Amino acid sequence: MNRLKLPPWLVLLLPAIIILSAVVLIPLVLSLYSSFTSYRLTRPDSIFNWVGFFNYEKALTDVKFWAAFGRTVLLLTVALNLEMLFGLGLALMVSKVTQGQRLLRTMMMFPMMFSPILVGFQFKFIFNDNVGLVNNALQSLGITDQAIPWLVDGHLAMFSIIFAEIWTATSVFGILILAGLYAIPRDPLEAAKVDGCTAWQSFRYVTLPFLMPFIYIAMAIRSLDVARAYDIVQIMTNGGPARRTELLWTLIGRTGYVDARMGYANAMGYISIFLAIFFTIYFFKKLTQSRKELGMGA
Amino acid sequence: MASNLNHRVRRHTLKGLHFFGLFTAMMVLCVPGLWIVLNSFRPTVEIMAKPPVWIPNDLNLDHYRAMFSGIGEGGVPVLTYFANSLVISVTSTVIALLIGMAGGYAFARYKFNFKGGMFVGLMVTRAVPGVALSLPLFILFARIGIIDTHFGLILAYVALNVPFTIWLIDGFFRQVPPELAEAAEIDGCTRWQAFWRVEFPVARAGIASAGIFAFLTSWNEYALASQLTRSTTSKTMPVGLLDFTSEFTLNWGGMCALAVLMIIPALILTFLVQKHLIAGLTFGGVKG
Fold first, then answer.
1. Cβ contacts of residue A102 below 8 Å, gap of 6+?
2. Which fold does the domain B66-286 belong to in CATH?
3. Does A16 touch chain B (CB under 8 A)?
4. Architecture of A58-293 per CATH?
5. Which of A104, A122, A298 sits opposite B288 (nearest CB)?
6. Where is the ABC transmembrane type-1 domain (chain B) (predicted)?
7. pTM above threshold 0.90
């Protein structure tokens, strides 16, 4: 009887492992299988129609797929970097304030409470060419007398989406970097001052290295749900105009549910899953590495 | 003398720039949200007015009244959605918290092989994009027959929240010195009692904030809910927002009112935990 006794850590982790296998792993295995079939929602028996790597070949030779792939990577790179920079700037500005910091911190967290889909609707409203806040303001100020088609023009639509995405996530970076700024020990900064460092030098060589773990935590958290941009894009433009803002996720959603071509959609889904997993592992690696450099590793 | 003046001018410009930058940043962060709140009180005529009406001259509760009585355009059953959201979010949070506590405790207190790999492995399950996961989940749930039920969505949200809950709670248990529990065990407590009487109360605030974080994730989730729910029996509020849209028109006022209803609980909860949340993320991550 005692031979079957499991180690305590495994017993404690077992519920988590079971639920994650049931809801994440098993469906993923199923979708891996169906990505090798010509499964269509409308014809359930087509799930037994094995087509080998056909769906993957189709995806990899599809111009639309690569356009969406490139756009997704571009959006993630631009958005994550800008969020990091803005968050850093915001945190530095707030940390320099002497009075009312609590209020500022609270205001900073405001966008974090908005559901991504709500952010989508909110910016669809604000960038609306007819009744939106942005166009109304521009027209009232006399900057332009024409309605700027924010969500109808391809480039402007991409800009609007990036703006919405940055709006939601900058505070995540801001709040975490601010926590990092509070935790910086004073001695190295004073030593830098005594040694005659300029403000920029002490920021670059003392403050920034110390903040890096905090930046990587924010990056790791963000990489866990970058796909939340799907909600925003789907509401704001739904991939349009003329697929100019089509991302991997909207393309997958459309292929799977609207065209009902589940097998093909799952094949593309797998490629996007690997993209997400790559980002996550990359930032968790960076996180442990920068921790070790600061001597905080376990 | 000249350098002194120069210095003072520079300090004043810096101060001015700092104030200006901070002011702009806060405006950008707050105005879009406040715009939604404002429009939920304005009549549709005024929202659509051209040229725009900048100073509202007619604020009323019409959109809220229409929303709650279900007689608005399309008659959106907001109260049902609210109840669905509440039941699903609360239940999935409680379950995720229990599972997360067990898992987090295991990571914080025990040493085992492949610990780091296992941790990242758990986190990676969270990174699977909702839309990619929703396709196979939809097929699977349809087969079992739990599409459009509370149970199905609760199951999905528990799995969604467990990795992050483990990460947070792991961090909180690490802050509790292991000596505390050891002392309790020497004094005759069992391991379970030591956990329940000593370690749990110390980490309680942190666990509560992990719970609120999980609640907000479920409360705001859309990609999965939009596929796994079909009717009013299980639709949540984020999905309900779409009821205000039709082929060519959008009832902005009504949508803003529902948005405010969604934000209020989130607002209150976030304020309650903001301090613990930051501490949890940074300690869990940095001192880990």
1. none
2. MetI-like fold (1.10.3720)
3. yes
4. Orthogonal Bundle (1.10)
5. A298
6. 82-273
7. no
